[in-house]
Design goal:
Blueprint (H helix, E strand, L loop, with lengths): L1 E6 L6 H15 L5 E6 H6 L2 H4 L3 E4 L13 H20 L3 E5 L1 H6 L10 E3 L7 E9 L13 E8 L3 E3 L2 H9 L3 E6 L21 E5 L5 E4 L15 H11 L9 H11 L2
Parallel strand pairs: 1-2, 1-3, 3-4, 4-11
Antiparallel strand pairs: 5-8, 6-7, 6-9, 9-10, 10-11
Length: 265
Amino acid sequence: MKITVLSGYGLNCEKETAFAFMECSRKLGISNIEVKIVHINDIIDNPSELKLSNILAIPGGFSYGDDTGAGNAFALRIKNNLLDEFQEFLSQDKLIIGICNGCQILVKLIPEFSSLALIHNDIGNYQCRWIRVGVNPQSNSVWLRGLSELYLPIAHGEGKFFMDQDILNQLIESNSTALRYIDENGNYANLQFPYNPNGSTYELAALSDKSGRVLALMPHPERGIFFTQQDNWSLEKEKSKRLGIAVPKYGDGMLIFENALKYFC
């Protein structure tokens, strides 16, 4: 199994994302795995890097400084140089994940997402916090199989999914609304800050394409693979100890990577 994690032009979470896949492979006892960080220019020069991959990960960051809109310039670099190869990858039984800036890039590359945008947070500034998201029980996302609720970190200034009502209706009908922000009681955030940290339409935190193989999400699962990365880990540890429950090693972010690797095993 080969996993390619993109880098270059301001993407800056490639090492954490690659580590998450490797740590996941150790947890699952999978040995036949190669995780490689590859600069986008190297894939343009040698497209076989993409053709030979089973999973493509576009990590977070601030590609091109978000100067022409978050993810826009990087998406154009792919469109102008690798469009055929990217479309071929999409058509095959392979997986793609776009995280934060990678999500902003993906929505400009996936045809069924082309009529929506990710815009500035309603609150008017960058948000870095832990949030809860509920998984659409009707979603066919490979990445989210068997999951119902996740506790993950977010870190973005342009994370608000925005679209016309008819586009939203299409996404709802196709069950592409993969993750939605919820409050601490498991209820949808109803646009209430900080549960919905950006004012995202329909509480959207992630989209899945119709095939279920592509996931574009604003939260950072790679920053939440260990229990001790959580902002509330010390409190939750004490709760577990008092209840006689084993303190977990891994966080919810690991579950997303597990589903991806299990798909090929």
